[in-house]
Prior knowledge:
By secondary structure, the protein is an alpha+beta fold. 35% of the residues lie in helices and 12% in strands. The protein is built from 16 helices and 21 strands. Strand 15 and strand 16 form a beta hairpin.
Amino acid sequence: MQVPLVVALIACAISQALGAGVYTQRFLDQYSKIHNASNGYFSKEGIPYHSVETLMVEAPDHGHETTSEAYSYYIWLEAMHGALTKDFSSFNTAWETMEKYIIPGHQDQATNSFYHADKPATFAAEQDLPSQYPSPMESGVPVGHDPIADELKSSYGSPDIYGMHWLQDVDNIYGFGNAPGVCEGGPGTAGPSMINTFQRGPQESVWRTIPQPTCDSFKYGGKNGFLDLYVGDSNYAKQWKFTAAPDADARAIQGAYWAGQWAKAAGKEAEVSATLAKAGKLGDYLRYALFDKYFKKIGQCFNRNTCPGGTGKDSAHYLLSWYYSWGGATDTSGGWAWRIGDGSAHFGYQNPLAAYALANDPALKPKSPTAADDWTKSLERQLEFYAYLQTQEGAFAGGATNTWNGRYDSPPANLTANTFYGMVYDWEPVYHDPPSNQWYGMQAWSTDRLAQYYYVTGDAKAKALLDKWVAWVLANTKFDGDKYELPSSLEWKGIPASYSGGAPHVNPDLHVTITESSADVGIAASTARTLAYYAAKANHTEAKTAAKKLLDGMWTLYQTGKGVAGKEVRKDYNRFAEKVYVPSGWTGKYPNGDTIDSTATFITLRSFYKKDKDWAKVEAYLNGGPAPEFTYHRFWQQADVALAQGAYGLLFNE
Length: 654
């Protein structure tokens, strides 16, 4: 389907939806709750918190941190608000807020001019356990050429990266004070603070992390700041470093695409054109996620010392990997800078609609001369990736990697015989505590994007993948009146068959088992939206009915004064007392005086939690009481509820 036809369909949907449909009204009601200042979703700067509640540990380790994920949902939420009101000013504001606070400015990455595309970074092996860190830098390991750095610099007139850092301490509760333009300003610094946590291999769950600043001037931590906890070196330099979560940047682009389509339908295209150009720029730099970590050649890369560096685009796997990172010295007089991609890709991060938009929509076209071609290739490769990973049942298994064990080790023989363009299958890419593809949410999130791509284009390859996935979901979704139950935890068995393009792919030996179910409102919303987009294009009555029942059930059963949310029992909060590995003899301090040493636990590194109004529930649990119960209002979940209700209303005029 061509873009103009999509616009015509959207225009028709909007004109009817503005007649106060049930589901579009639900969007507006939920939107009002999210924007009610007394409900606490936003900081005074207008930044969306990860959750309204502060005592919250999952990927972020505090509820009033935020993520690039939350910003991307904020952008998408405001795009749909524009669709229903024909006012896109809040969409533009959302992008401006994101750009101001979580995309590092020039002053935060001021030494990019020292970056050399022929020497993008020095190799340091990923280790299996946090206790194996710091990992030594190995300058003798060959790395490849960065093929996009020069054209990005030429296209935008700057050596700086335009990408979201993934994690932000909005209220500066740690006290690093890494605000925009400020390096370790301290507890009194105004504005949100950039931080990081994960950096020590696949077993470093959030409970085992040592939070650190993105700009390390050795003011806090130990004698070398926090650097020598992670990387072994003979001489440590003060430095800045940022990491992007590609699925979030892609979601922001996806939201911008819809804003553009909805604005065209409303005759307001000019109102969003400048923001869409910025979305195209974000997509231009997002291409770093399409490359191997050290720009090594893709395929059969099983020895870090002999696997060669790439010389062009042969280091691109064209998939949305888990991250890309960039950093450099704080000393602008004698600086240096580095960049890395990631050799591991998870199916759950793929976004065919964003790739399609960047390759085909003139309003989002990146400036770089090879960007549209890269995204065209990425779209094709992503669709193939879904096919490679689809189980007999219909669910999608984990992903693939070009760097086994994060250090280009030699994989087991059965994996080297069943590759994806030479990359080996990994059922739990990147992190293992818990396994990264255990959570059903990855299924709903990623397949929602696939379904939206199918709705826009009618691509038969996407439909074939969705036919099988939707059948699996419908067979495993249970309804009892307003009550519903969806998959929650998954287990995997077998490996996919080898794939290198061509004919339709089948995996007779790859299987999924559902081990737990739940009524999680966020994932129910994502699932409902997936089913709705699929049903609208495929004219699938059962999928439409299931989507409607999920939306009605959550709306009826889980209303709160602040949104739509269910109760959660957090048995994992016994890990507040978990030991955090710190090398013997290493000693440091946080800005509030908390000590970092070999006796550290999660809570001793975060004594601020003991002042939280909900701490007593966790403390009682640690002392042998029952697991605490919470009703959380996560920003992404609440936005997902609104977006699913609104999408259903727009699609079916109900």
